[in-house]
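User:
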Amino acid sequence: MNRPAIVIAGPTASGKSGLALAIARAFNGTVINADSMQVYDVLRVVTARPSPEEETQAPHRLYGVLPPSVNCSAALWKDMAATAMEEAWEQGRLPVVVGGTGLYIRTLMHGISPAPPIPDEIRAHTRALLAEMGNAAFHAELAKRDPVMAARLDPANSQRLARAWEVLEASGQSLAHWQSLPMEGAVPARWLTLALDPPRNILYAHCDHRFRAMMAQGALDEVRALLDLHLDPALPAMKALGVPELARLAGGTMTEIQAVEAAQRATRNYAKRQLTWFRHQLEKPEVVSAQLSERIFDEIFAKVRHFLLTPP
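Assistant: Predicted structure:
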């Protein structure tokens, strides 16, 4: 397929959203969110979604489109993103997909292995069982039923433990079997991938500064509103960066200084993991390793212009 699309990947607080908006404004684009937490409607501040003013400067899609009670899988997001891209192309616009969720981006560009549908009752039972047993005992029980998949999983990762159990319950087959099947559902497009890889010291300083700014913008009130929904703590939205720490602050088990420092540390660690993932998983990206500046923007615009003008 010859239709062009841009992907902007990189760690949190690296300037992806600002770059995406600049490209969308310069090249008649639509910004499409690829951040697994920015899809939720109640977490604008905590997830650093674009501001309402920024959203008026170019079309933005898939921001705040789901309630936090929904578990937004890569497959669900990919279907929504494919629709948003098709809409952009029909309008003569350039899709600019931006985010730090590597699995979303990989699924969009390369597809995903098929998986069975999970009935709501199995999902609810699995979450309740995990909460009752605890991770270690749940992992041990999974190892008895599905030793291959259990050996691949970190016992501390509740989400993946539950997923492996759900698939086994729903299909009678290991998640490892489903993952071995050919990937399907990639969106056909001509891709230009931009990977932001800023200097670590600058990135970590941005992480710390941004969380302090979030606190000033009402992040704690946002988390209190989320807690008032009394959702399953295993849901992805409940684990967004900053939410667990601010939940403890709201509950009186952390001071504000402790919560901010813990959230900043978690954000820096997440950024480090994102950098590692993108360095090994993206295929032939245009790497932007310098701090974003007017000069760097000009260089990136030149790459985009060349990409759009080069015959497929």
